[in-house]
Design brief:
Elements (H helix, E strand, L loop, with lengths): L11 E6 L9 H11 L8 E7 L1 H12 L7 E5 L10 E8 H10 L4 H16 L7 H17 L8
Parallel strand pairs: 1-2, 2-4
Antiparallel strand pairs: 3-4
Helix pairs in contact: 1-4, 3-4, 4-5
Length: about 160
């Protein structure tokens, strides 16, 4: 009897790189992290990942969140019009330079910090948030578990 591996669900990702920062994880890692974040999501899905400069991150953060300065990641969930289904979940906008700076400041590997933020952003795309303590605890618990399954340490300690 031949054993077959369960086929891992792949979420279609599109990557837009509009920054010249030196370290950006490979498509392989980005795909792995997105797949893990949506491992319980039913059906085919798609996500756009835009890797940006601090300038673009700051502009988007100011326009959409009314906050000054760049941020590590922004999530823009896609909401299709009523009665129209779409596999597109939304956009993640990641400031590569800021993510790498944070990893260094927090004494984390770049891959571990990137994995955390990609998973964090993906969870926002499917409705998770951290405005209130109860929501934050739930979201952090999921992030910690998914990162553990990928072999990364708890990012909150």
């Amino acid at each position: 009897m031949r054993k077959t591996k369960a086929k891992e669900k792949r979420i279609k990702i599109t990557i837009q790189t509009v920054t010249s920062h030196t370290f950006i994880p490979s498509r392989y890692f980005l795909q792995q992290w997105v797949n893990k974040a949506f491992s319980n999501k039913i059906g085919s899905s798609a996500v756009n990942i835009r890797l940006v400069s601090k300038k673009e991150s700051a502009e988007l953060n100011n326009f959409y969140r009314h906050k000054k300065g760049p941020t590590n990641i922004l999530s823009f969930p896609f909401e299709p019009p009523p009665k129209i289904s779409s596999p597109f979940l939304g956009d993640l906008v990641i400031c590569a330079m800021l993510v790498n700076q944070e990893a260094k400041q927090q004494a984390k590997t770049r891959l571990a910090h990137w994995a955390h933020l990609v998973i964090h952003g993906c969870l926002h795309l499917i409705g998770y948030d951290h405005i209130y303590n109860k929501e934050a605890t739930q979201m952090e618990t999921i992030e910690i578990q998914l990162l553990k399954e990928l072999g990364y340490e708890n990012p909150y300690i």
